[in-house]
Automatic annotation (TrEMBL):
Belongs to the Dps family. InterPro entries: DPS_DNA-bd, DPS_DNA-bd_CS, Ferritin-like, Ferritin-like_SF, Ferritin_DPS_dom. The lineage of its organism: Bacteria, Pseudomonadati, Pseudomonadota, Gammaproteobacteria, Moraxellales. Coiled coil: none annotated. PROSITE patterns: DPS_2 (PS00819). This is DNA starvation/stationary phase protection protein. CDD domains: DPS (cd01043).
Amino acid sequence: MAKTKPEINLVEIDIGISKEDRASIVKDLSRLLADSYTLYLMTHNFHWNVTGPQFNSLHTMFMTQYTEQWNALDVIAERIRALGFPAPGTYKEFSSLTAIKEVEGVPKAQDMVKLLVNAHETVARTARGIFSIVEKANDQPTADMLTQRLDVHEKTAWMLRSLLEE
């Protein structure tokens, strides 16, 4: 796992969260950002490449999903910055931090849906795993963001799962 980069602030941060706790939170938020970016890229890829009888509905659904995910990336990265650390922003960093496996080739539409369910659930698990340090550090803005992200990913996974039922 990648190391947390050093703070780059010239002015000391004093927001009521210790530097050590902020570094721990950022380490986990960096994993969330990497998972979120990987999910965004997977969803956009599937939007471009989906085919079959569900083309129109999936193409439109995937666009709605990747647009929401794109906007969330900024929220996560800016929280990392507000905590005083640089946000990861390269494919190399994201690939070393993410728990989502890259998809090779172009899966069938139903397989795309299954892969997205798994990826959304992975992001939800990553987000949920951050709460203990966030609660210990009394970091309400990060807790609020995590709650919002969990709501989106759990709801999206449920909607995608419903497409897999017979």
